[in-house]
Design brief:
With 74 residues, the protein is α+β, with helices and mostly antiparallel strands. The protein has one helix and two strands; from the N terminus they run H-E-E. The chain has one helix at residues 35-48; strands at 52-58, 61-67. It has a two-stranded antiparallel sheet. The chain is elongated and about 50 Å long. The N and C termini lie far apart (42 Å).
């Protein structure tokens, strides 16, 4: 379906899906070389992260981001 031309007063919205990757540094009293301890720490960290709906205001216009599934990989 081709995009439609916005009518007067209507904003043209673009929708794309992007994957962002981040580096998380964890300082812990637990021995993170132990795979069971590392799993417990990462599971606790993932439990603190949650799905979110973010309204962003940028110099190029507003945007809405939805953070969905959060996973942890050791």
């Amino acid at each position: 379906m081709p995009p439609t031309t916005p009518t007067h007063g209507e904003h043209h919205r673009y929708r794309r899906t992007y994957t962002l990757t981040t580096k998380v540094t964890v300082d812990a009293d637990a021995d993170l070389t132990d795979p069971f301890a590392r799993f417990a720490v990462l599971r606790a960290l993932a439990g603190q992260l949650c799905a979110a709906h973010l309204d962003l205001d940028t110099p190029f216009g507003t945007a809405t981001a939805r953070i969905g599934l959060v996973t942890a990989v050791a």
